[in-house]
Design brief:
Chain lengths: 215, 182
């Protein structure tokens, strides 16, 4: 997920990232966006420390943390800045018009919609997918129909594709079906390569490119 | 079991109305590959049972191709209305069996369509993202858990040499085969 964010930010400044307190996120964000941090020996003898990853200066990441009691009841929602300053993150959020504080409400709403509209993802269902691929295909199809053919009230009766200037009108399902999609194998390989290159951290690239001693 | 192949009539009005600017050359080696509204296409002939499908001709590379190429209607005999209904049902989250029942087609047809539509949707999404000019400003990330039935591991049947058969139990050694579990 972080890789696709990095691929589509297209060598520009990293976007504002808002996450919940799921444990793998910080490392994943660092792997994708992180820069190499060389650590110098302070004093004395000993082996040089291995280089590490550090967040770039313009990366801003906010975290929403839910505090619950032993029964799982929500007590409090706290927010913090993972990378960057909290005040600056909140200022940016207000400027973008996606809230007042650090939040993940938009993605939670989307998750609710997809759970409601896809029987395979509903909670306590017996309609689960047998194959992982079929679940993936149905989600991809749903995503396209959601982005191109469904009108959103919050976007003033426009589709997300129209909001991003990718479409001039609301597409009908028939138009989506008849639209010709031509992708060459070379292009698919190129996309896969882009994704793999983003997934390789700066430390891995450094280790790969490090010249071996000659003697 | 639902009745199969209920529809024989086909509404051929809509696809013929589509302008040529809606299509692009599917040949990878063509200079106008995937270029829409490049003014390089003309109608070569009408084909199909009812002569309702256009075969297009690319002036740049000389390729002839069906207007259905790259669409979900490619290689299908189902009428257009049925395909729309199947995609709508799948988009609204109906299960494969429910979709098959509603659209009065076989479940295998729906499964095939889902696979085809899913792969095409991924390609379509990636292609459209390349046209995106605006950079990402803010991203919210969250995880969504789904459940799938655990897949059985693939087993491989291997012939056992006679020497080893003695070590195996009688039941297994009788056939002379064992299953390797990866």
């Amino acid at each position: 997920m972080t890789a696709s964010v990095a691929v589509y930010s297209k060598d520009k400044a990293p976007p504002l990232i808002l996450i919940d307190d799921h444990l793998p996120y910080p490392q994943a964000i660092l792997t994708v966006f992180g820069q190499i941090k060389h650590r110098h020996r302070k004093k004395g003898r000993g082996r040089l420390k291995h280089p590490r990853l550090k967040p770039p200066a313009d990366l801003q990441t906010g975290v929403v943390k839910k505090i619950r009691d032993y029964r799982g009841n929500l007590l409090k929602v706290s927010t913090k800045a993972l990378f960057g300053k909290k005040k600056e993150i909140e200022k940016r959020i207000r400027k973008l018009g996606i809230g007042q504080k650090i939040n993940t409400s938009h993605i939670e709403r989307l998750n609710g919609t997809i759970r409601g509209q896809q029987a395979r993802l509903a909670r306590r269902t017996r309609n689960g997918s047998h194959l992982e691929e079929m679940l993936q295909y149905s989600i991809w199809l749903w995503r396209d129909l959601y982005n191109w053919t469904r009108v959103h009230y919050s976007l003033l009766d426009e589709t997300p594709a129209m909001a991003l200037d990718l479409a001039d009108e609301v597409w009908s399902v028939l138009k989506y079906i008849l639209y010709p999609v031509h992708v060459s194998d070379l292009q698919r390989r190129d996309w896969a390569e882009q994704r793999n290159s983003v997934l390789e951290s700066a430390v891995d690239v450094y280790k790969r490119n490090k010249a071996l001693p000659i003697s | 079991m639902p009745e199969q192949k209920r529809h024989k009539e086909q509404n051929n009005n809509d696809p013929t109305n589509l302008p040529l600017s809606f299509f692009a050359c599917p040949n990878n080696d063509c200079a106008d590959f995937n270029h829409f509204d490049a003014d390089n296409l003309s109608i070569a002939e009408w084909m199909g049972k009812d002569k309702a499908i256009r075969r297009l001709y690319c002036k740049t590379c000389g390729t002839r191709f069906s207007e259905r190429q790259g669409s979900l209607m490619q290689y299908t005999k189902l009428p257009q209305a049925d395909v729309v209904r199947i995609v709508k049902c799948l988009g609204h989250g109906c299960s494969v069996e429910a979709t098959a029942d509603i659209c009065e087609v076989d479940t295998r047809t729906v499964q095939r369509f889902l696979e085809k539509a899913g792969k095409r949707a991924a390609d379509f999404h990636n292609l459209q993202l390349e046209n995106l000019d605006k950079p990402l400003e803010a991203v919210q990330m969250d995880e969504l858990h789904g459940k799938t039935v655990k897949r059985k591991d693939k087993t491989e049947v291997v012939k056992v040499p006679k020497k080893l058969r003695k070590r195996l139990s009688k039941k297994r050694a009788k056939h002379g085969f064992i299953r390797l579990w990866p």
